[in-house]
Amino acid sequence: MTEDQHIQAILRLGDDTLVLGQRLSAWCGHGPILEEDIALSNTALDLIGQARNFYTLAAARENQGRDEDKLAFFRSDRDFQNHLLLELPNGHFGDTIVRQFFFSAFALERYVFLSRQLMDAEVAGIASKALKELQYHWEHSAQWIIRLGDGTEESHNKVQQSIHDLWSYTGELFEADEVDQAGFEAGLLPNLELLRDTWNTRIDDCLQKATLQRPEDGWMQRGGKQGIHSEHLSYMLAEMQILPRTYPDASW
To answer: What pTM was estimated for this model as a whole?
Structure first.
């Protein structure tokens, strides 16, 4: 694994958590109930905190005079390597919960591996620190999937439609490119095929409890890890980055 690939792998971890954290932060003040408003906001804070840790590490490793703020606010959409699932608009509450459900099942297993790998102690430390947060994210989203799926006819139908609509974005989570393969061979990143098996088990068990149907696998969206994104990321970044880009030398 080259040093550049190593840094790219760390940046991807930061990009995933920043983009999803930014999306979830939009729920602040808009949750269906007060408790859920707070829960989604706290999840967003967890993810953005993880992003900051990964960006700080990546900036130190690349040694190009950038810091976590530069990596978050002064890169274009083509520079981001997050999975496409995470940049999608929030939609209604069921859409957000399904997106979180799919990603949390993946992220939790990924962080379990990262926390145990021996190649990079700093990455392992960040992952270990975040494991409790990821466990909560998974449990929270899974509980809501069961609650909505096994609830009223309306909640069941809506969350089933959300699962159907977002399913085509899940394949990218397990599609390995050169960085993923090099990271796996070096012992830094997990085997995505094995991760798919544990993900499937988590997802299927929860869907069964929720009386929901797993969609058929078919064509899957891809390109996020190569910097090829939907228009949704561009609009999100424009909103997120406008202040630091307008006043790049401002201090607080």
So the answer is: 0.96
